[in-house]
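Case study 2.
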Amino acid sequence: MTSNEAPSESTISVEQVKQSVANQFPARLADLSTLVRIPGIAWDAFDPAELQRSAEAVKALLEELGIFETVEIRSASAGDKQGAPAVVARRDAKNGKPHFLLYAHHDVQPPGSEDQWLSPAFEPTVRDGRIYARGAADDKAGIVAHLTALRTLKQLAGDDFEVGISMFIEGEEEAGSPSFRNFLNENREILKSDAIVVADSSNWTVDVPAITTTLRGLVSQVIEVSTLDHAVHSGMYGGAVPDATMALIRVLASLHNEDGSVAVQGLTSTEAADLPFDEATLRGDSGLLETSTPIGRGSFLSRLWTQPSITVIGIDAKTIDISSNTLLPSAKAKISMRIAPGDVPERALEKLRSHILAHLPWGARVEFGDIELGKPFASDTDGWAFKLAKQSLSDAFGTESVEIGIGGSIPFIADLTEVFPQAQILVTGVEEPDGRAHSPNESVHLDTLRGAMIAESLILLRANGMSTQ
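Prediction:
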């Protein structure tokens, strides 16, 4: 059989796919190592030249495949600012085969404090079955998983495979994807597809694969609470005049019930999947201190995935090093609220604001400042693509795949569903609970990465034997 001859899908076994991935795995780890050495960070405080270098490295890897009709670096604007460089590619489907859009992102989080890393953040280091580096898991391993699946597809189905492929390797996901919606609108033709694989999530464990079926949405609100028109001496007026910080603390404390559950009324809350997850697992995964107790009510997975949560992520008041005996006239806080699948960000924001207004003490005033809204997500689990992915994950790992939720938010998925309403969205990933994405000593488990590569290869090969007509 020549490289241009494709065996029928039924003649390509799971073992053939596993062998193909195993044969190229060292080379794909080398690709991953090349990518993670580039500190491409899409924040204003970091060198944009490194982000461009990262995009060019991804483009070179896609061109090396030799399968795409076009491979380009493109960007879109976000207001008056140009967005980060993204890499796109396309190869049209043939003979009625389905078309897939493969998404990942090449930008990474800042490294944080280097003294907390056991090895340099941008120097890939393999130890104890994992490869450590910033971006190793989130999300450069996702890029490499896509590349491996495409190489396996080409090797086993031949150069003239018929399933369609588009690639979108974003460059600003860690900065909130500010130009994402404009990018989709401007590049609709090159990205349109029947199914979208978002390789930016996690598995249940290192050896139990998962598809993420729910994501919480995001409502972020900055508030400024005021009680005075100017600062006054705390010794002269304390005890009779309310301080803004004091009032702000009372407002923030009202956001939670005594057990730590969210006190804002009218928010959506549902039950999560019934998977084994006990308090010991929660403590181990989160680093909860022995003296600290969990908060909330209901199952732990419901608390993490399908109930709302509120965190005060920033407070602007007088810092200790410049503190004085003064009653402050105003103080600010940033409230981050995660909302459950099925809720609406605008509606949830109004519920939060109504709660704050109802709990202002001593006639304090509040001004509502900057907001950020992100829609939650619940996937269609009845579509052909979901069933294909679930079976392929199970076959790749040799363990039944599960459906999980994620407590965090990926707001751009809502943009994908709105711009491409007919496409089925599969949220997969190479991560697992100990990957420590965004933290020091981020890593990806090599066996889990290999399993993700095999699973995506099976998805594409099996789709190559399907028809959408």
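The CA atoms of residues 45 and 110 lie 10 Å apart.
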